[in-house]
Request: fold
Amino acid sequence: MARMKFYCDAARCIECNGCVTACKNENEVPWGINRRRVVTIKDGVHGERSLSVACMHCSDAPCAAVCPVDCFYTTDDGVVLHDKDICIGCGYCFYACPFGAPQFPQDGAFGTRGKMDKCTFCAGGPEPDGSAEEYRKYGSNRLAEGKLPLCAEMCATKALLAGDAGVISDIYRKRVVNRAAASLEWGARLQRANFRAPDSGTGTETRKGHR
Amino acid sequence: MSFRPPPCRRVTRSGWICWVLLAGLALLVADLPAAAPSHDKPSAKVDDPGTDLWRFVRRRAPELRSLAEKGAIGPVTTQVKGVDTSVLINDKGQEWRLYRHRMLIPISAIVLGTVAVLLLLLYLAVGRRVPDPRETGKRLLRFVAYERTLHWFMAAIFLFLGVTGLTILYGRPLLIPLVGKESFSAMASASKEGHNLFGPLFLVSLLLFLQRFWRRNLYSRGDLRWLIRLGGLLGGDSPPAGFFNMGEKMLFWLLIAVGLLICASGLVLLFPNFGQGRLLMEGAHLIHTLGAVLLLATIMAHIYMGIATKGAMDGMKGGYVEYSWARHHHREWADEEEKKGRVLSEEEVRRRFGEARKIGVPEREAGT
Reply:
């Protein structure tokens, strides 16, 4: 069985938020909730990078460990899913998650948390694959149709990759090797190949051998 | 440089001066390469901006904001609105998980279990042999109806909050194997909603308690002596005490202090609509649970005292206590009441209850 993973290539992400929009549309995500978000670091200065982040479908998922009602389960594909019929909306998964993936709709007075909602790797929920009930609660089940998550499929620069961990890491490894090769060929700094230069710093050492 | 600091442990005065000069020199030297780069050695180290980036990923929003203000980095932004959305990695989440699973769940089980077992042993060894207070036919009014209502109001809420809180904490290992996930989900959901609804009422009862009882719980002369002798637990006669003894006073102030802490942290957790961050909520959960375990253990001891000290519960049931009990446990208060002529006969008390039943109102009480 596959082990499904997301990988976001920071050298490619252009912060277009296409993944966020694709996810929201494909899964009919409730108002006020985004299962995926793009975070930009060093916004507006040299070395700016963006990363698209959602549930990373951890092997040892902290959300599943802290859930007081044990509503999480991991599918054979390594996708972490949850059962909204069991979830009580306590918010513990939100505290524990490193990526801020679990989201809660406001349900009732004073912003009381409703049932948790998060990225499903476009794999639906515990209901029968492709059922209306599943779609209503969790959004589309593309995995059952043999398709990958729409966020990655729609990514214009192919920064966001989704699929089996082995395949994803092979693609990324090739990219890194190509970038390194390009930098040797063109004599650019290795750093420049992967990340833009910093604001300050002379960098004389690394310019040795520059054409 | 020929100067080398002496390797001896004791630093003389001249040694100190040398150290200070050396430090100053080091500061100067550190600034030099920027002005005059050396061509012999590799010049200033250039940080890989990539390494830098990944270092920033783990930093929290406030830290990043302060760095951004200094111009060290640009701001961290996202177009998605919500709580902590611009934080990429929440590294405190794992610490919170470890606290809950490695500390809270096992340690509170050990603490509450140990206290329960010790109290049971104490009851079997001492408590059940305590005789009923000697019947003198005389009664004293200890708690008026308002105070008793307040006490049981708070007791009911406290026990409810304790049970619902423990259900959420221990349900997964203890109840799910028994009743299954679906039934437990319903129980846990009811526990959560009930906990949220009655939590604020506990704060109300706590404040009313404080308003009603704070004066009687101030430290008074002789309390320390009572505490040193543990209220006569180690044998001998009960040391004299006023309306409340030192044990009750300590319970009261612990309840107020820890209770207010629990309520404050509970309110932080109760209203996620104000957009408080995860770090604050994780901290609030930590305080909330530690305080709750402490209070639960203390209240277990309080319940034990109510059961084991025969005659004590009467004050909270009907309001009247046996005179000999008051004389034994709260000598100063009993003497004062006697001086004021507030000692009632058993018939008088019975007549009051009877009258109350006839008229259909709570009993009339002497004084408040």
